Amino acid sequence: MSIEKSQKNSIASEKRTSQWEALMRKFSDDHKDVCKSVSVDIPRVMRSQKQFPTGSQYTGSWDVLGMSGYGTYVFPNQVVYEGNFSDGMFHGEGELRYPSGAILRGNWKRGLITDRTLFFDDGLEYSETDWKYCQTPDRRFTIEYEEGIQPAGRSFLTAYQPTREIPPGLYDTGDGFYDPKTKMVYKANDLTAIIRSPSEREQHWIVENCRKSVDETLGPRPDLYKEWITPRVAPEQAPTPAATTRAMREKLASCSRFDSQLVAFTKYSDSTGLEKSST
User: 137 and 89, same structural domain?
Assistant: First the structure.
């Protein structure tokens, strides 16, 4: 019995090798050569302009995965991206140029912007952390930094010159005119063409800060003035002095005699008038 048990244990302890494992070992032994590094760079080619069904278009380099390398992508709204691409997405350095003239420069990572800097069409650089342009105490426009503050009567009303006339009821947003009734921004030279639909937050900002056409009579505003009270003409009676001089006592005595005579005369006049009225 002991011999049979020992034989069974020895058989169980032996490791069985599968057919696939044997084949893999044989393959590994036959290919022991060191693997050589092979370039995996996908070749890029330049091609002519590509029109997309969305109305966008692209001009630049391509690879088998799509837009890759350097190129220019134009959106249907005429916003232009020029910069680097990878796998058909914005990737690397590039800039967005808007029809208004503003430029957004930044870095993208697989279609998402990671850092950015905005420049307005007049060259003014926007700061997202400490934006103090045209705020108290310095409310100058960009043109006033370059040409200086003009004298009264020729002051710059807007950053763009010449100052354009605003249609009745509309607000000047810089890139067009905002209509509070339709809540849309229209082109300045064509009020039938819609530029954009501002957010609710921007709508409040436009109404509170942007120029509006003069649709009400100008003149003084009573609510800006204080209410004046008519001053008293008669001065207040002077207080009685704490001490009197001889001249003051004589004056008071003469005044008291005059008052007594005046009282007596008044009583006499009243009695005479009563007698006459009774007759």
Answer: no
Residues 182-241 have pLDDT tens digits of 999 999 889 999 999 999 999 999 998 888 887 666 667 677 777 777 777 776 776 665
In angstroms, the CA 162 to CA 133 distance is 21
Find the domain containing 209 and state its range: 164-213
pTM of the complete model beyond 0.90? no
Number of structural domains (the chain) is 3
Give residue-wise pLDDT tens across range 140-188: 888 888 788 888 878 888 887 888 889 988 999 988 999 999 999 999 8
Q: Is residue 85 part of a domain?
A: yes
Instruction: Output the domain CATH number for residue 86.
Output: 2.20.110
CB 207 within 8 A of CB 180: yes
Residues 178 and 156 in one domain: no
Which of 178-191 are b and which e, b meaning 16 or more Cβ less than 10 Å from the residue's Cβ? Answer: bbeeeeebbebeee
The residue type at 266: T
